[in-house]
Q: What sequence folds into this?
């Protein structure tokens, strides 16, 4: 996507600019609040007793189980929606999955923050979005039945099925570029960013909205811990730590607005970060099972993204990992990253390794975009957030033999002769892997001298 320029920096016109960010995350109703939580190493996953989960409608077999864990990353005010603003009747809004409602509101916010009327950009704008299965459809709309009888099956379908999320946003905001639902499990939203970048590079569109949302309804269900499952027995996700024993679920939404960097500079947009390269692949059959991670595929996707970006691995100062905190996943991911980096450098311990799942939980279809937004903010601000649950390294990972370290405390990004650069990984069950390389925004152009 770019080539190195003087002193290792890319040419100013290269890459894809992130010109706006939007999202809602556990414990944060916006991106800046999310960043503040990351900097102070906050764990914003909610904990609640079984009785509270039962009141929210959780099954009695779950809440009464001796291994019940009341932990989940929750969003606030999910029932609020300005239906009239988006042209929906109260009845339509009632049958509409909150994932669609919240994504519409976040999309509008992303354009508004960047100073754009989405319907008046004068150029094709692409939309690439992912969403989780509509639990609202299953637990509310179909279970109650009245809305389906009054509206009919087709309106219920288009207001809930994730295939219609991207085109709903395109329709309501008047966006005329390609509009895709992207689905690859946990890697969906980062794969959506990759597809958006490709669409911009081939001039299918001149702006692109990309990201994803995951929201379980009702929230606060909790889970039953199983020794062979992916969820943590204590409701805490501790990636790369010796105590890591699983992840915890959560809800969230994240979107980015992208433009070709040259266009963003021309148009005077604020550039939060520049995406230098990205890649997507699949493990195929080269792993022990369908749901297992694969070293070869993960390593290959990181190496490809680095090659596309055209920057040396040793200039990457931080990697936002998939980092689920599982016994199998973390060592595999570090091994794969190490293979990719070791093809270019023998240096050890120079790159910080993090995972936002330690702060907000695993946000499913929104997991990758949440990690990307964290990385964008880190390269923009020159700060590497610390890990809330990191104490001692996982004994299955010999960090001294790798290019990586995990910082427990929040640190200023070390100064270097090259721009701040980060990698972001997201891996989906089924083997679709995505990796993105980005760097800090260039300094804004100097104002013209008065005549």
A:
């Amino acid at each position: 996507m770019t080539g190195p320029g003087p002193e290792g920096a890319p040419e100013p016109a290269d890459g894809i600019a992130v010109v706006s960010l939007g999202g809602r995350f556990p414990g944060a109703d916006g991106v800046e609040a999310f960043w503040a939580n990351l900097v102070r190493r906050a764990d914003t996953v909610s904990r609640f007793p079984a009785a509270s989960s039962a009141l929210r409608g959780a099954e009695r077999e779950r809440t009464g189980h001796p291994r019940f864990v009341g932990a989940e990353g929750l969003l606030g005010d999910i029932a609020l929606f300005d239906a009239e603003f988006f042209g929906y009747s109260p009845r339509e809004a009632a049958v509409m999955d909150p994932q669609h409602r919240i994504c519409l509101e976040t999309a509008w916010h992303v354009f508004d923050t960047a100073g754009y009327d989405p319907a008046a950009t004068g150029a094709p704008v692409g939309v690439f979005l992912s969403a989780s299965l509509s639990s609202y459809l299953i637990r509310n709309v179909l279970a109650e039945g009245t809305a389906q009888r009054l509206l009919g099956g087709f309106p219920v379908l288009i207001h809930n099925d994730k295939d219609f999320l991207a085109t709903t946003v395109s329709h309501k905001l008047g966006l005329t570029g390609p509009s895709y639902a992207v689905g690859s499990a946990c890697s969906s939203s980062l794969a959506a960013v990759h597809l958006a970048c490709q669409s911009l590079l081939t001039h299918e569109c001149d702006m692109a909205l990309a990201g994803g949302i995951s929201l379980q309804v009702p929230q606060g269900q909790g889970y039953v811990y199983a020794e062979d499952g992916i969820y943590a027995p204590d409701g805490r996700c501790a990636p790369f730590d010796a105590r890591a024993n699983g992840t915890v679920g959560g809800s969230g939404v994240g979107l980015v607005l992208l433009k070709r960097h040259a266009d963003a500079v021309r148009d005077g947009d604020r550039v939060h970060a520049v995406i230098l390269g990205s890649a997507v692949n699949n493990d195929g059959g080269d792993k022990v099972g369908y749901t297992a991670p694969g070293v070869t595929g993960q390593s290959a996707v990181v190496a490809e993204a680095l090659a596309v970006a055209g920057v040396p691995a040793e200039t990457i100062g931080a990697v936002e990992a998939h980092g689920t905190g599982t016994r199998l996943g973390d060592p595999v991911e570090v091994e794969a990253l190490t293979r990719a980096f070791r093809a270019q450098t023998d240096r050890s311990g120079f790159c910080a390794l993090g995972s936002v799942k330690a702060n907000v939980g695993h946000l499913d279809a929104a997991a990758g975009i949440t990690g990307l937004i964290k990385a964008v903010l880190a390269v923009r601000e020159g700060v590497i957030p610390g890990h809330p649950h990191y104490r001692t390294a996982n004994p299955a990972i010999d960090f001294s033999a790798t290019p990586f370290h995990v910082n427990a405390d929040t640190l200023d990004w070390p100064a270097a002769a090259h721009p701040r650069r980060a990698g972001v990984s997201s891996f989906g069950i089924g083997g679709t892997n995505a990796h993105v390389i980005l760097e800090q925004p260039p300094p804004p152009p100097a104002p013209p001298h008065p005549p």
User: Anything to note?
Assistant: The CA atoms of residues 51 and 217 lie 17 Å apart. Residues 2-12 have pLDDT under 50 and may be disordered.
